[in-house]
């Protein structure tokens, strides 16, 4: 049994959005086609399972740009699962947090409970939606679409229980750290934060 | 290599068709052919057959001694101490490389700027090494051939004094031909995937000029701004719908070939551009049709264009564009089935290619006249011989001023520049639904320094007007005050602000080329797209 996790190296991100686009084409193609048909406004409102936020800091001429990534953290202790009244939100044996859309009633308790803003109501499938770590690809021995697409290799994926995996090594080295530890959620997505830029 | 006082490299005659250049051998204290030197002199001055001569490195050293960090601080505003520190870091770090440019000249001195960067790379051994710059130095690509002497672009470029006018890079010359009939009148324009009214310099003029032509025929996949000026639109297959010929792999550290294989049936009544031109020339008669295939073969580099032309024609008539690809693959011993299933065939992987490039460098088989990495430019030296000395074509390196230098005060006037964002190109992404919304709005705005914006009372989202100081042309933009930009500069993205109502997913931008004017850089004839100073006004 694997314990899947991801490391996102923000030093390597160039903000191109290829991960966002890969996720949409891999996982939300039908919804995307509907939004395209509806027009620009629907596209503007189209929710993403993973997204990038640009941060500009400093005062000219000592300035920098950092891109941060949000994605479901696939917590060991996921508050979204414990608040779900119907059992739609659940954790697989591989530690992946998923939503069963047949059971989802759209109460959005989980959206409120998630400290990372990783969940959203998808009007096209009428269910809460979120990152699945591309579980269907993992079943075929493939990595998540965002990981294979990233042109700079900013996202690394693997088994956190395998000490020889790159993700394990990065986490063990202390270079990759979890977000909002104080929430007690024990995320399995880790970030390598940018080195200070002058 | 030794260069005489008159600027001529010293030679020892020709052997097997190759000129042998001299270097000074410190071991034997005399001038010898490069490959015979035991200890080639980098510095000093020597006398060879009564001529005073210096090694190129000595000439470079003398040339750059005037360009001190204090001198550069006055031009760039970057403190001399920082420049010195960067220089030391660059000199001590391995591998290290500076991007030495790929764009056509944005400024009058762009050729010299990139040359300076390339020289720095050569000095720290970064031209042919793993993990750093490997393009260029090991290239086997030939320079582009001259265009016809009757070409509008060539005649116009020569008139502007462009040193490389014969290459015909000066497409801006078509404006005079359309507007004034100089050097001769043209009546019809075929525009293939080109968006002149958005990306042509002084785009106001292109808009008027296209109206004056008797016929404008546009081949494109998008109803972009230029296509709207066409009398006839020949819609092309989109990339997923088309079979393509064989192309060499570019922009990757491998040697090989790639192609496109149609993945879906065309959605609409469209054609491949080759079908379009083959169809037109066939209607014009056998003579034109035959010429089309012969010139096609020439463009593919065929040794016998007549024979190859006939072969291509036969294959095309049987199998369409796919047939052309099959002939090309056969000529290169490439398995067509593998090519079509994988889309690309790598002939030499990165490791093999790098080894070959290193070997070619070490054995003096590069494309320079000496076969080695040379700091001295033979091409620029021949321009100097033809046209006299100008810093823009110094065969070593020289500071040459851009036209706009010193013309922006950072209070009311600003240098105008543009750049890329990862999700947009000039044109082909404008109507891509998701890329359109994945591009954040701030990347579509005009960036203005935060402190300057405050002093002008400009806030984020305010509409501002950019007015070209040179032509008076004005465009509106949305302001994005930011610390990411210098006080004297305005930045916009190279989306350039599409207007065509036929594009469903376009968003706002800045019509940059309304503000540029018709210019040609002295070396290649590029449009010098950043030689622009603007005033900023609040709308």
TrEMBL record, chain A:
<dbReference type="Pfam" id="PF12797">
    <property type="entry name" value="Fer4_2"/>
</dbReference>
<keyword id="KW-0479">Metal-binding</keyword>
<dbReference type="GO" id="GO:0051539">
    <property type="term" value="F:4 iron, 4 sulfur cluster binding"/>
</dbReference>
<keyword id="KW-0411">Iron-sulfur</keyword>
<protein>
    <submittedName>
        <fullName>4Fe-4S dicluster domain-containing protein</fullName>
    </submittedName>
</protein>
<dbReference type="GO" id="GO:0046872">
    <property type="term" value="F:metal ion binding"/>
</dbReference>
<dbReference type="GO" id="GO:0016491">
    <property type="term" value="F:oxidoreductase activity"/>
</dbReference>
<feature type="domain" description="4Fe-4S ferredoxin-type">
    <location>
        <begin position="95"/>
        <end position="124"/>
    </location>
</feature>
<dbReference type="InterPro" id="IPR017896">
    <property type="entry name" value="4Fe4S_Fe-S-bd"/>
</dbReference>
<dbReference type="InterPro" id="IPR050954">
    <property type="entry name" value="ET_IronSulfur_Cluster-Binding"/>
</dbReference>
<dbReference type="Pfam" id="PF13247">
    <property type="entry name" value="Fer4_11"/>
</dbReference>
<dbReference type="InterPro" id="IPR017900">
    <property type="entry name" value="4Fe4S_Fe_S_CS"/>
</dbReference>
<keyword id="KW-0004">4Fe-4S</keyword>
<feature type="domain" description="4Fe-4S ferredoxin-type">
    <location>
        <begin position="4"/>
        <end position="33"/>
    </location>
</feature>
<keyword id="KW-0408">Iron</keyword>
Automatic annotation (TrEMBL), chain B:
<dbReference type="Pfam" id="PF01568">
    <property type="entry name" value="Molydop_binding"/>
</dbReference>
<keyword id="KW-0408">Iron</keyword>
<dbReference type="GO" id="GO:0043546">
    <property type="term" value="F:molybdopterin cofactor binding"/>
</dbReference>
<dbReference type="InterPro" id="IPR009010">
    <property type="entry name" value="Asp_de-COase-like_dom_sf"/>
</dbReference>
<feature type="domain" description="Molybdopterin dinucleotide-binding">
    <location>
        <begin position="414"/>
        <end position="531"/>
    </location>
</feature>
<keyword id="KW-0560">Oxidoreductase</keyword>
<keyword id="KW-0479">Metal-binding</keyword>
<dbReference type="GO" id="GO:0016491">
    <property type="term" value="F:oxidoreductase activity"/>
</dbReference>
<dbReference type="InterPro" id="IPR006657">
    <property type="entry name" value="MoPterin_dinucl-bd_dom"/>
</dbReference>
<keyword id="KW-0732">Signal</keyword>
<comment type="similarity">
    <text>Belongs to the prokaryotic molybdopterin-containing oxidoreductase family.</text>
</comment>
<keyword id="KW-0004">4Fe-4S</keyword>
<dbReference type="GO" id="GO:0051539">
    <property type="term" value="F:4 iron, 4 sulfur cluster binding"/>
</dbReference>
<keyword id="KW-0500">Molybdenum</keyword>
<dbReference type="InterPro" id="IPR050612">
    <property type="entry name" value="Prok_Mopterin_Oxidored"/>
</dbReference>
<protein>
    <recommendedName>
        <fullName>Molybdopterin oxidoreductase</fullName>
    </recommendedName>
</protein>
<dbReference type="InterPro" id="IPR006656">
    <property type="entry name" value="Mopterin_OxRdtase"/>
</dbReference>
<feature type="domain" description="Molybdopterin oxidoreductase">
    <location>
        <begin position="41"/>
        <end position="282"/>
    </location>
</feature>
<dbReference type="Pfam" id="PF00384">
    <property type="entry name" value="Molybdopterin"/>
</dbReference>
<dbReference type="GO" id="GO:0046872">
    <property type="term" value="F:metal ion binding"/>
</dbReference>
<keyword id="KW-0411">Iron-sulfur</keyword>
